[in-house]
Amino acid sequence: MKTSMKIFIVLVAALFAGHLAAMDVTELKLDKSSKVVMKVRFDNGSIADPADKRGLTYATAQMMANGGAGGMSYSDIQDKLFPWAASYYVSVDKQVTTFTFQVPADFVKDFYPIVRSVLLEPNFDEQDFSRLMKAQQNYVDQTIRASSDEEYSKAALEDQLFRGGNMAHMVQGTSASVQDITLEDVKAHYTNAFTRNNVSIGIAGNYSNRILKRLQSDLKKLSKAEFAPPAPSKARQPDGIEVEIVAKNGAFGSAIFTGAPLPITRANDEFAALMIANSWMGEHRKSYSRLYQKIRQTRSMNYGDYSYIEWYENGGRFQLPPSGVPRASNYWAIWIRPVQIATQLQAQYPELADVNIGHAHFALRLAVREFDLLIENGMSAEDFENTKTFLRSYTKLYAQSPAAQLGWLMDSRFYGRSDYLAELDKLLQAATLEQVNEAIRKYWQTDNMFVTIVTDQSEAPALAASLIGNLPSPMSYSELVKSGLPEDVLAEDDAVAVYPLNVRKVTIVESADTFR
User: Fold this and answer.
1) How far is CA 381 from CA 147, 166, 169, 434, in A?
2) Once rounded to an integer, what is the mean pLDDT over residues 256-277?
3) By C-alpha distance, which of 390, 403, 396, 401 is closest to 420?
4) Nearest to 153 by CA among 218, 19, 247, 60
5) 128 domain residue, yes or no
6) Is there a single domain that holds both residue 287 and residue 256?
7) Taking all residues of the chain, what is their mean pLDDT, rounded to a whole number?
8) Fewest Cβ atoms nearer than 10 Å: which of 142, 166, 205, 503?
9) Same-domain status, 193 and 290
10) Whole-angstrom Cα distance, residue 440 to residue 276?
11) What percent of the chain has pLDDT over 90?
12) What is the pLDDT of residues 469-483, one digit of tens each?
């Protein structure tokens, strides 16, 4: 072989090896595990959707994961997976799309060809497309409005927070945009947005280096298209408290979700200090937190009340924050699960026959007042120490399975960290009361917020008038409940009922007009 040809071959090999080396790989070797988990993440998410094709990334990912692949039908693939106890699924969020494959270590060799087919050889069959697009259309037209007012309020708030930007729409898209998505659009988006240039790998469990190298080599065969992830839009700055009331026929109470921009994420060390304050105020599904104690425990107003300093996927289903939803554009929020409306109170208690609004205005006032008290007074030394101790233990439960551990490690890379949960524990350990109270004053305020309230059509006009007029909103108890409450609670109720909120704008939106 001529010397020039040898040099050419060496250079090509070096370039090829360099490209593979550049592919971001997160490894979690667990030799005693009986399972292998592979995660393949694309830096696209719903912000990569074209403006007139909202929901296209979700549709493409669904066609890959829930359609046929490699010439096999989706049903045939599931039949093959069953005896191996193997599975795979896809998760689409605003900035990333993640495929997760799980299989017992004994069947990795048999399972891997399906992994490869799903990622590299989706069938893009017309029947699969029709089936999956009908489900996606039904979600944006019906399911989001009908299945859970809590999730509905969260999606509506994000629309309000990010309106006009690429973070506003649901990952499933909008009613009009989903109708316009074609199979050719999906094929083109697969080529342009699911490429070897925006993919990263995670692998955990009892895997061999050979399977990892094979996955790396195969992903090199993805499209060569240059893909630059779009920058996520920032949350808008509200002018005072801006409220949107979504009027829905047959709503079960008033579901409230509030939010305001938060300029820090897990990438910032201050985030750990704010986590301590947030845990004390409203740790997700924890009865010790302040909001839970004030709204549910003391007054029995609803099922739960929580606060957040980052997006919490499927909060109604998950007890622990899931991985796979990292976001660079952040906001903090208060979630008040549905409280009763006037017609419910009137029907249950004869003594409340004259009430004209339910508990939403009072509950919002109570939550905002608690934040204002915390901002003004800070945490006490005792509350700080107790919450810090709890949080250091609790965060160790976040990643219990190999899939969760791997997911959190991959999220760490997104935020420019190595192992976020390990680093978080050190940050929590080092946090001081002064740092926490400074973070509270620096990042939390209640004068400028967005509020979404999903409520019944019968409640919307009176609630809107009460909010914009800053009218008194006395708590409505049955006589039996009120007779058992201590005087200090009733006195607090009187203060809450007239607590001023900086409401500048209230809009009623018909449910049918959302996510159009």
Assistant:
1) 42, 42, 42, 10
2) 98
3) 396
4) 247
5) yes
6) yes
7) 94
8) 142
9) no
10) 10
11) 94
12) 999 999 999 999 999
